[in-house]
Write a structure and sequence with these properties.
This protein is α/β, with parallel strands linked by helices. About 50% of the residues lie in helices and about 10% in strands. The protein has twelve helices and five strands. Helix 6 links the parallel strand 3 and strand 4. It is elongated, with a radius of gyration of 22 Å. The two termini are about 20 Å apart.
Length: about 260
Amino acid sequence: MIEAYYNLKRSPFSKDINPGDIFVSHSLAELHQRLDYIKEKRGIMLITGAPGTGKTLSLRTFVSNLNENLYRHFYIPLSTVNIMDFYRQICAKLGGGTPYRKTQLFTSIQNTIKDYVDNFKKIPVVIFDEVHLFRNENFYELQIITNFNLDSVDPAVFILAGQPHLRERLLRPVHQPFNQRISLKFNLCALSKEETKAYIEHHMKLVGASDAVFNQNAICAIYQVCAGVPRMINSLAIKSLTIGALEKKDCITEEDIYRASKEL
């Protein structure tokens, strides 16, 4: 309905956007630079950001740009597990099988990582998502898993992504040993007011909009309601476009935005 009425090539603000089409904000550009750094130096990186700011999408972009001849990525989204399941899922993802005992799992994980580096000449990139849901004990285990050769080398890249309160949690004394092992930290910020305008225009242009569908007051209203959070902007923009198509409006106004916001 939206596509037909506004003469668009496809649905706008889609979550399955091509990584090459992502709007790059100032904060996202800086994150890309940090990811390139950790990719080269290896070690542990912590990425935080409020829900909907684009952490996972940024990681998908990062992964899509990895040279497959040099890197092998592993994405682990299930974070609410006990210690043994934690070990088993890492081991299984890496392709090391699922031994029964914890000592065997630990050995298999480390040996598999070393095997990728030494024999396949590929650097493993292990990504943990929703890490703010980790149990405390899994931070202790990850500290041990990432200790190679008496803590003298970093053969792999470990990226941890979670919500902002994760940073404060890792500052607690109980987590200091692991926190000190993190090589790089970055907090992904929401869009500014100017970036929100550019973000909306960027996404509408991607789907072939020839005219400005959202007027300036509507864009200001979107920023006011969503505070620059891309996921919320996407949802509100789609809802307001649906209202516009149903009511046959060529231009989305501030009033349409506030009406649509009641459904968020």
